[in-house]
Give the backbone structure.
Amino acid sequence: MAPRPPLRPLDSVDTAACVGAGTIGGGWAAYFLSRGMRVRVWDPSPDAPEKLERLIDAAWPALTELGLAPGADRSAWSVHTDLAEALEGVGFVQESAPEVLEVKQRLLADIAAAAPADVVIGSSTSGYSMTEMAGLAADPSRLVVGHPFNPSYLIPLVEVVGGAATEPAAVDWAAAFYERLGKSVIRMDAEVPGFIANRLQEALWREALHMVDNGEATVEQIDRSITDGPGLRWPLQGPMLTFHLAGGEGGMAHMLDHFGPSLLSPWTRLEAPELTDRLRDAVIAGSDDEVGERTFEQLVHARDASIIAVRKAVASVREAYESAAAQAAREIDGAAEREEG
């Protein structure tokens, strides 16, 4: 195999390819457009252009409210049914195909063979490792997981990790690329099935299903227990810092020493319940009851508006904290200099 050329300079990337135009891939397309990029989309579905246009139309108001990059053009996209054609001239590839391992393996191999040799290829997989997905690729060195959170055009989190054959430089490049576009990147230290956020979300989801299955709580009660409870603490301070503060002045040490024994109490059941017809029907019925007469479009608008409000509020609080901390540091430095003088 001939030596691969150096990876493309970050500041030269103005066109991205989205392989797959479903909910995740279409969300990525909308986000790339909002960052001033051109987007080339590969999707073999005959109705892909119409679906993508509807998704971009739905996402654009939220992206506009968060702030568009100079030159952002919501119409700067094209859909292709030929993969090589879709990848022509792009500076980055985001694969968002269905979560079927064999499909991912074949498609990533085809992308790696057709994409420019200096281009990094990210996968939106929600659970597979890049080591297993890259098994058919002749050159897996630039294949990287770039796991977003839905909606991918609005939630800033991207978890980045390479596979066993991924070059560290490709992982570094991908993390820097996402950050350059305004994403909040976790560069994972190792491959973990389901990554970080999905594993935590799955634990909560499993316990919720157990409570519905046992008749202990309704769907609406479960949702409100988070939105009106711990969810209010999590946008700024995650579960670990939340428990650190719960320990009072003793912090996490006091929390673990005082409440550690309760970890042995049967409060949670992390094994998934069997998805019987009865449980499935109960969850669907509960969801329908909670939704009521609201349409899908109304729910999406409410969700996006809520996320925007939370992101703006948290950014304001974080900015104030960081400003106060910087001021305190300057005062300490000034006092130290006066003492030395």
Summary: Strands lie at 15-19, 38-42, 77-80, 92-95, 120-123, 143-148, 157-162, 184-187. The first strand starts at residue 15 and ends at 19.
